[in-house]
Amino acid sequence: MRTVQQLFDLKGKTALVTGGSRGLGLQIAEALGEQGARVMLSARKADELEQAVRQLRSGGIEAGWIAADGAREEHIARLADETLAAFGHVDILVNNAGATWGAPAEDYPLDAWDKVMNLNVRGLFLLTQRIGKVSMIPRRYGRVINVASIAGLSGNAPGTIETIAYNTSKGAVVNFTRTLAGEWGKHGITVNALAPGFFPSKMTQGSLDRIGVENLCAGVPLNRLGDDEDLKGAAMLFASDAGKHITGQILAVDGGVSAV
Question: What is the C-alpha to C-alpha distance for residues 56 and 33, in angstroms, rounded to an integer?
């Protein structure tokens, strides 16, 4: 019988985290690395990745980086192949890379819709498919963690934000998670999703500026936004053997917004 500490131990495990150069992705990467996993970060900008890897290594975490655009099929293939060449296999895949765009639905630009969908849904599918087929299914082990959003669980309040493509894409991630969990359970692979509420980040800064932190917090039962620690515990549950009997689940980390 393992102890709780042993169940959460990731020594000897490898993880690939997309959108890992900052924000929620970097927070999750820190959690995985702190528990012993080797971590590969991916994002589009090499300079931001270099800085993130320096931060992780300063904390004793073994980490590397690969610059890749998660919306481009050839980049996704290269990312998967180079990660597998470096690590040998991938135990934990964190699909965090994402984009958003704000505009009224009736005037929403098609190119903006495609940009959001190509990264948030198509790219997520292609990378998961490749890592699953080449590494996880043959080894009969894997942990897939998709970063969805509470925006994928409901619509937006009138007069707040206008993000129809983002909400739609995150709704797709929610059902992608449930569907893949059903298909890949027989291979020993768990597939779960985190659904964050508002966390201060580059992606949410526009909404925070327009709506205001105080107004956003007023609708949160815990009366606060997420911080740079709030995804770590949930990510560890899904990534480790502590969560080996949990699959197909969507965990909102939102201060209670989705509960009221």
Answer: 8
Question: What total number of domains does the chain contain?
Answer: 1
> Is residue 141 annotated as a catalytic residue, yes or no?
no
Which domain range does residue 121 map to? Answer: 4-253
Longest dimension (CA), the chain: 58
Catalytic residue among 8, 65, 87, 166: 166
Dihedral (CA of 31, 148, 133, 46) sign: negative
Provide the residue-wise pLDDT of the chain in tens; the chain has 260 residues: 999 999 999 999 999 999 999 999 999 999 999 999 999 999 999 999 999 999 999 999 999 999 999 999 999 999 999 999 999 999 999 999 999 999 999 999 999 999 999 999 999 999 999 999 999 999 999 999 999 999 999 998 887 889 999 999 999 999 999 999 999 999 999 999 999 998 987 767 766 676 777 778 888 999 999 999 999 999 999 999 999 999 999 999 999 999 98
- Please check whether residue 11 lies inside any domain of the structure: yes
Other Cβ atoms less than 10 A from the Cβ of 138: the count is 11
Q: How many residues does the chain have?
A: 260
Strands 92-95 and 250-253: unpaired
Which are the contacts of 209, defined by CB distance < 8 A and separation ≥ 6? Answer: none
Task: Order the strands of the 38-43 sheet from edge to edge.
Answer: 63-67, 38-43, 14-18, 92-95, 142-147, 189-196, 250-253
- In angstroms, the Cα distances linking 154 to 86, 107, 258 are 40, 21, 8
Q: Is 260 part of a structural domain of the chain?
A: no
Give the C-alpha distances (Å, rounded to integers) separating 237 from 60, 76, 179, 188. 22, 27, 20, 16
CATH number, domain at 233? Answer: 3.40.50.720
Tell me, yes or no, whether 184 lies in a domain: yes
